Please model this.
Amino acid sequence: MGSLLVRNARVRTLSHRCPESDAFLVVDGRVAALGHEIGTLRADRVIDAGGATILPGFVDAHTHLELTALALYTAVDCRPPAVTSIAEVQRRLREAAQRVPPGTWVKGQGTLFQDRQMAEGRYPNRHDLDLVSRHHPVVFRSSFHVAILNTKGLEVAGVDRHTPDPPGGLVERDADGEPTGLTKDMYHLLGVPEPSQAERRAAIERCVRENFLASGVTSLGEIGHSREGLETMRELSLALRVGVYVHVPAVAGFDEALEGLPETLPGGNPRFQGIKLFLDGGTTAMAAAFHDPYELDPSTNGRLAYDVDELTQMLGRATDAGVQLAMHAVGDRAQDTVIAAARRLPAERVRAARHRVEHAGNILCTFERRAQLRDAGLLPVPNPGFIYSFGDALETYLGAERTRSAYPFRSLIEEGAALAAGGDCSGTDARLCQPLFGIACAVTRRTLSGKRLDPGESIAVEQAIRMYTTWAAYAARAESDLGSIEAGKCADFVVLSEDPFTASPQSIAEISVQETWIDGRLVFSRAGGASSIPQAISREVGV
Model:
């Protein structure tokens, strides 16, 4: 692979031993030396960075590459701010229906809490979507958790008044017991056809380039959506690193994921990283499991997919096999179930496995619960971007009392948590693919309306960056290779238009990623193709 010297840069290494440098040497894809350690060592190529700021490549601990690709590039865009009414949703979907034969599915993509952003103050229902077409099955997806179908769609999916709620899912019904069209946490059971292999391939390639590499993401934890998606990623030889958390049971059964997939995805890219379990659903679907009922609907407090005994057995087997579990637990009842199961095992074994609680650290992560997570050896993986997306809606769903301890990042870090961040992008808001957006959210704590959510829990810029670098690498069990620019680690780095350490907090989200490098290879350039180097940022010079 040869050698590369990057000089005349402001390198924020995130290494405690050498926090800042003006140069680093790359040999065969790994950092070999920094600053004065380079000495008289020579390189095949020398890049003058022109004083630009360089950070380690960003690590997104939890995202949905395939889902994001399909949502952004194969569905009709029905997201705010362009779409803020049911009438506009209908218009866009109707135009799409007119372009395809009757019987063809028409799919629309909305955003999180879109009911709160619509002029009507609600989601569309089956009758609204019937006005799009009665001859096309239509589905409008507001989030990973909420999907609404028209009458034809319900018919094709086999959902009627006699359809029981599936485990962990829900069919919303009207006063007469008829489906309203809204379903929760059961999209994978509706039979909505997947895109063709060619469509999936093109969408994933474009999403990697335009949303992840362009945002400086060099490594991500992918919550696998389908076997077809995993196979497509293997065929594509993606530039960025993909560690797959196989979704049980949607993609594979627990036994197969535990025993078979580690052998079929042993290394390379994508690689098997662990197993994703859903303990509960999402707050948007009112399926996250809480001890107390929802403020918005006191008839429910969410649903649990596993009880303590079931989860203990799965957790124990995974720990024995050395397989990391990423356990989705949004509500306090779900988090307490994870904690109770983990406490039945020796904490040192749980800690060694680096079992994670996805979304812990977002809501109802009280002092007592934080201590219990820490004592049980569990890693919380919260989502800073949700401060912006969810911040204004949380009180509506949960009430004022339960939202007082939302996103307590400062407390978690001060109490010793290596707090990894996940964008959790599934196509509802492309900004969730952008670590700099998440970093800005963690620092400013601004919601969609501009409100500051509990400013006392704001964290320093360096801490927010570590959530997407060193700490995210630790949560992926990859800290020996990723997360900082230091000798021995992979030469993954990003060149920025401005230094986030010195920029105003409000402007961090607007900082541009000019270049993204993986293993010392340029894989994204704001100025052009992957082989060009922006002259305004860096230039190659002879040696």
